UniProtKB/TrEMBL annotation:
Keywords: Endoplasmic reticulum, Glycosyltransferase, Membrane, Transferase, Transmembrane, Transmembrane helix. The chain crosses the membrane at residues 73-99, 120-141, 216-237, 249-282, 288-306, 318-339, 378-397. It is a multi-pass membrane protein. It is an enzyme of class 2 (transferase). Its EC number is 2.4.1.-. It comes from Sinanodonta woodiana (Chinese pond mussel). Its main location: endoplasmic reticulum. This is Alpha-1,3-glucosyltransferase. InterPro entries: Glyco_trans_ALG6/ALG8.
Amino acid sequence: MLSKNFVPPASPLEKEVPIPMTSSIVPGSLCMSALLQTLDSSLSNIHFQYNGFLSGLLLLSITRIYQERNLEGAFWFAVLLNLKHIYLFVAPAYFVYLLRCYCFQSHADGRIRWDSFSPVRLISLGIIVLSVFAVSFGPFIHMGQLLQLLSRLFPVKRGLCHAYWAPNFWVLYNVADKAATVSASKFNLLAIESNRTAVMTGGLVQEYDHVVLPSITPFVTLVVTLLAITPSLFLLWSRPRGPASFVRALVLCAFGSFMFSWHVHEKAILLIILPLSLLMLYKKKDAQLFLVISTVGHYSLFPLLYRQQEIPIKVCLLLIYTLYIYAGLGKMFGFSWSWSSLPLLSQAESLYILGLVPLELYNSVIHSALGLSERLPFLPLLLTSFYCAVGVTYSWIKFYWLTFQEKPRKTEGKMQ
């Protein structure tokens, strides 16, 4: 795995590293390895999607940005984007950061120096990125298959949600529409066709209309996604504080895209967890949020491993990883286990995380024991998606708040 033992170095523009690293503290590289091995085992080796390889390239690209080797970072991200277009979710963060911090200089207070723009650097970035795209798309353009390729890359006819709903805002929207439909039908408030009430929870990849709430189109999701990520990009442009601020913007772009994009796959949660893991060693609040989103994000992938014989594998992997990361970060920041809360987490957050236990018991044992597998086959997926969507939404809002709470620091005037 590329960059498997990566620990982000302190950037010249990111001086605050408040945790003393001693031999008694779990090293960040071990936490990172545990994270990557868990994801590799559960997704790459079983689900057969090569996510570990792609995650390695993402970390390699971010590493080059941290090392101020920006052209290499741009190259590896361009390669990554052409290998799997889901990484388009975080492309805006790369574009804004490289344009702002590689092609411009800053004043001491962080304001941009417009007279410092370097056309040579912009052209260098353009040549690198366009060269990668030319190699990737050139054969398809030569054969006249570009439109066919784009239609397969962006299949808008597959519907708002995947067969298993990714735990994002549209899950909450779908559930609200379903609840409103049931209520309206029960009290005869609306004339509702029976086939319309069931198609949304049929577990199929298809287009459907909402019954009570307004139906969502791809254009609506595009607009909402852009609105969700724009504040983070504006902050990155106006208050750049080195590579750490780039990673924060990258995480927020991944968050916003995951929350509101069209037909999001549940594996896209990894685009949030992996970059955020690079920030968890710097500040306690980032570590707290990482514990919540990583636990919920890992659990939200359980439905991908749906066979009975895979239940012990995924449960043991998540349990081992969770115990390791909670103990390691708890010790690092001086928090221990207690009867009232998990390390670093509030009582409410701890209660929510522990709620995953009865949820999994119901999904794996109780649902089939009650004989509901035939009559309500989608219910376990619905419960998992809805419960995890609550945690993901909470984490997104909290991370945005934490990012905007950061005080601007003075930056150096050099180009990076």
